[in-house]
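Figure 2 data, in text form.
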Amino acid sequence: MTHATILLVDDDTALLDALSEALRLRMDGIQIDTSETAVDALDRIRENDYDAIVSDIKMPGMDGLALLHEIRELRPATPTLMITGHGERDLAVQALRGGAYDFVQKPIDRDYFVASLERAIQLCRLDRQVEEQRLALERHARVLEHVDDGVFLVDDHGVIQHWNPAAEAITGISSDVALGRRAENTIPGWSMVAPLVPVADAPGPGSLEAKVLPIEVDGRELWLSISGVTFSDGIVYAFRSLTEERALDELKGEFIATVSHELRTPLAAIYGSAQTLLREDIELDETGQKRLLGVIAQETERLNRIADDILFANKLDSGQFALGENTFDLRTLAKNVCDELRACFAARDDISIHLSVPDALDSFVADSDKLRQVLINLIDNAVKYSPDGGRIEVAVEQRDGGVRISVRDQGLGIAPLEQRRIFGKFYRVDPELARGVGGTGLGLYICRELVRRMGGRLTVSSEEGKGSTFVVELPVEPVSSGERKAAVAQGL
């Protein structure tokens, strides 16, 4: 036992000297302070945190029991041994009930006294280590409250003992739900994911790299970069969300696949037509030349539409787009759009476009050009996804506080799971073009964003094989720029 400090309290100076000498002979490196009164001892205890205190139980003035009570108030973790006279068993019992660690009877058995004192010092040090570890854990826990990475601790029994705010924010699982519960009952799919998580024996350089794994919480797919480190009582896991990064990577992949396909077809047509015109071994009459030039012009226009859609979608995302406002007749606008598209699809005698609109409509205030773009996209989409033909019904209705425009087709329809995704960028219901439907997958995304900025909403109802109905609901009064920004930010 080294570097221990103890306090001996006794009004008998001879006994103090004898005990001090005996302890120095039997315990290496011990530091001993002595006090002849309880009052002086209290002053020393206030200034020093001793490893142990030894006090006579009978002293003039404040006795040992009163001193023990004060020690329990000042230094509750410091073990105190009481020295009692022979036959003072009742006092010894009172001392033990008052919180004394042990009592030693006079005449003092020095071997027992030293052994008991060593145990008391060891107990004190263990208590201090436990307290230091507890405080360190609290400090670490407070630090973990402010880190951006999710951190949780699973003990050897699989129970979650710590769940920081970032873990709650990333997963949506609150600490009230997580703490004290088994991880496999708290984190969906944890029993399958946990064996795949790399767990290092120690933190720092050389630790295993985190692994990206999926979990599904309340219908949301989360991709987490997660790793763990073992410690004496379990495993500490740290993770961060890569859901947005993964979605962005998927979006990039879809963009490349979609654009490369959509560009390849018109470029091939333009290149083929141009090569044919350049060939000297083929004589083309004026009609043939005009036909090839027409192909070049038509496919160039198609390329231009693709570029316009991509640039416009980027403008919507970057916040550089601003809606205009003008008063117009919605009835006339809808009629002109339907007439224009009937002319566009005149070659398709299997498609008919019908417009239903009231004889009179209140004047409408919005960006007429952008509402026209929405109607053209929705009707064009209805025709595109009706490869076997059918009736396209466009209906405009006056509603309390607004108008409702619906576009209904009898085409391919949309599966229930796909209906939530069709308004995303570059998403196509027929991604493999198995049913001959092309496109960049930006039309519905642009429509939804334009309708949002007008303060309205765009919804769909559909059944596979029976067609789809897209509905635009808009307020009569235009929304302010502040309301537009709030609607876009909230995804309304």
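Caption note: The chain has 16 helices and 18 strands.
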